[in-house]
Amino acid sequence: MRERLQRLEGTLRELRRFRQRYTLEDIDRDPHLEWALRYGLLEAIQMVIDISCHLVSRDNLGVPATYAECIEQLYRAGYLDDPLRKTLLGMVGLRNILVHEYALVDRTRLYSLLERIDDFQRFIEQIGPYLR
What we know:
132 residues; Four Helix Bundle (Hemerythrin (Met), subunit A); mainly alpha
């Protein structure tokens, strides 16, 4: 799981670089940039989900039926604080939209998520001590 966490950190670096390099107008003009943004966000969210569900399973915190339940179980076990729990639940919802209803995601909303990269960093900080 440490490798997964390092990969998440690398993805966050790339998303920060993307934010510095491209504007929303750039994304509106170039569908390839929108694709890159979608993929980068999806990859980061999926890694959060994978790490979360792995910890729930490894530490016998319950038997989640959904990705959101993995987040809830980490919160109940004290691995995550409540503000981060709420943020991560929103990310799970976004992941589902990106995967299943990709045409409905507004570019402006996607781009604004680049301002929330610190939420992923908070996940790394809160979950890091539980990874062995």
